[in-house]
Amino acid sequence: MPKTITYTARVEFGDCDPAGIVWFPNFFGWIDAASRHFFAGCGVPRWEETTRTLGVIGTPLVDTKARFVSTASYGDTLQFAVQVREWREKSFVQAYRVTRDDAAGETLILECEEVRIFGGKHPDGRLRALPVPPEIRALCE
Amino acid sequence: MPKTITYTARVEFGDCDPAGIVWFPNFFGWIDAASRHFFAGCGVPRWEETTRTLGVIGTPLVDTKARFVSTASYGDTLQFAVQVREWREKSFVQAYRVTRDDAAGETLILECEEVRIFGGKHPDGRLRALPVPPEIRALCE
Amino acid sequence: MPKTITYTARVEFGDCDPAGIVWFPNFFGWIDAASRHFFAGCGVPRWEETTRTLGVIGTPLVDTKARFVSTASYGDTLQFAVQVREWREKSFVQAYRVTRDDAAGETLILECEEVRIFGGKHPDGRLRALPVPPEIRALCE
Amino acid sequence: MPKTITYTARVEFGDCDPAGIVWFPNFFGWIDAASRHFFAGCGVPRWEETTRTLGVIGTPLVDTKARFVSTASYGDTLQFAVQVREWREKSFVQAYRVTRDDAAGETLILECEEVRIFGGKHPDGRLRALPVPPEIRALCE
Predict the structure, then answer these.
(1) Computed over its alpha carbons, how large is the radius of gyration of chain D?
(2) Does the pTM of the predicted model rise above 0.90?
(3) Stretch D38-62: mean pLDDT, rounded?
């Protein structure tokens, strides 16, 4: 079983749109925070430090797909359960299961699966995918 | 060929993250604006009006997948070319091709494909998918 | 002493700009959440309910001033101490003191003072200031 | 008369809150874009370049005050007229008048006045106010 780390977010009034439900791009904001929270929880230092030690400036997104199952609104507390589902040579698959605890039990809000890379900077300034650093992988498995 | 309507967004300093590139959830913010801009450009009125006339409160997202090809940064101007690629009974597929005009030509930034519904409110307050209103489909084809 | 209720926010990577510090509009996002959190903590129900019972749709902002003292960055946890400093006939003054707990003690990040109203909808659809509802004031003092 | 440069923003559905009006922190997002747009319009290069040439990483906010006069909603187009009202030794006052063009004429939405600095990085990593660079002031007057 891969390591799972859960990120918690409160939905605020300003996260919701005129229909009264979370404006969907805000879910991706929390997902990005949950991704970083996963690495921080595994002991991976800030990206400024990994820039110096490994050349890794962060984990840019390459692909994402998400399935929205139920809506959420302000006052809700959401749980983002995060795993790395697969390690590839130069990328990894990070997955999120987002739920809300209700009186009636747990409600599934959305599921998301991403491909991310460990990004470095080319001498020409452009971003490139670095081989997955074994030091980071060892912390996260 | 389906109708294509293009939405233009400028990337601002505050849209970028500490790596100096667009923070990816902001792409979904522009995509949502481009989705609404497509319907407005086809002559579909504001959702307040369709709420009264058709019971349609908006076009909530059900599924999305996106592929990020190049990064963007502040000062860039992005073009979001939007189409409805498929009309189903109770949903539709909306697609986005996002490019930047460069000295060297056109750079592909990302591609995104979504499933959305025309959302109505159940008497119990919950969101549900309405049959695609023929009035709206006729405007958009 | 007026009642004080504290709202806590974590600063995330995506809250920061290319200079590596919190993009200032995000402080106002947390301030708005802290304002609502104050009322919720005092027992004021959701605005949908007060719309029905008191005609109050929320607490729109009329005036704000803020003084930024220190920067913050991702990984920081911020405390927003919130008070209503003054009750007027048709408005109130809400104040925020934002700090970060550091190894060395407490660092002041910013101070903000706002004038807000209890907003209702005119029959013509426009927003107007309602007299401060005594039921709400009683809960918050 | 100080130089005035106008920034235009469209209000999108996702910029609005459950009350159907612009969520106020979004006004500060546009104000920050309008501030940068003023400097770009005066010929000031990107902050990466001024970091190298002048040590200026950007124009962090020190103080702001804003007065909200009318609400705005999606579909509106807003004009942000920007000026530098005063140049001090180590800071400057930047002001914004935000209006919407309506059938009936021009509606004032809000006014904002800020104190900003030209920020540099201390050897210890902290932000500090640099003397206003005469090269930049000459471009902007």
Answers:
(1) 16
(2) yes
(3) 94
pLDDT tens digits for range C120-131: 988 887 889 999
Distance from CA of C32 to the nearest CA of D (A): 8
Q: What is the dihedral of CA C108, C114, C120, C122, to 10 degrees?
A: -140
| Identity of the residue numbered D3 | K
Domain D5-140 has CATH 3.10.129.10: yes
ipTM: 0.94
Phi, psi (deg, nearest 5) at residue C106: -105, 130
Coil, strand or helix: which one is D2? coil
Nearest residue in C to D46, CA atom: C18
**CB–CB of B15/C17 below 8 Å?**
no
Say if residue A50 is exposed, middle or buried (CB neighbours under 10 Å; 0-12, 13-18, 19+): buried
Cβ atoms of D51 and D58 closer than 8 Å? no
Can you tell me the mean pLDDT for D71-80? 95
CA distance linking residue A119 with residue A46, whole number of Å:
14
**Helix A25-42 × helix B25-42 angle, to 10°:** 170
Q: Given an 8 Å threshold on Cβ–Cβ distance, is A32 in contact with C14?
A: yes
**CA separation for the pair D114, D94 (Å, rounded):** 5
Instruction: Give SS3 for A55.
Output: coil
C41 and C34 in contact (C-beta within 8 Å)? no
User: Amino acid identity of D48?
Assistant: E
**Residue ranges of the alpha helices (H) in chain A?**
25-42, 47-54, 134-140
Round to whole Å and give the CA distance between A92 and A134.
Answer: 12
Question: How far is it, in rounded angstroms, from Cα C35 to Cα C7?
Answer: 9
D21/C32 Cβ within 8 A = no
Structure tokens at B102: 């460069």
Report, as residue numbers or ranges, the catalytic residues of D.
Answer: 17
Q: Cβ distance A39 to A140 under 8 Å? A: yes
- Which tokens sit at B94? 């909306």
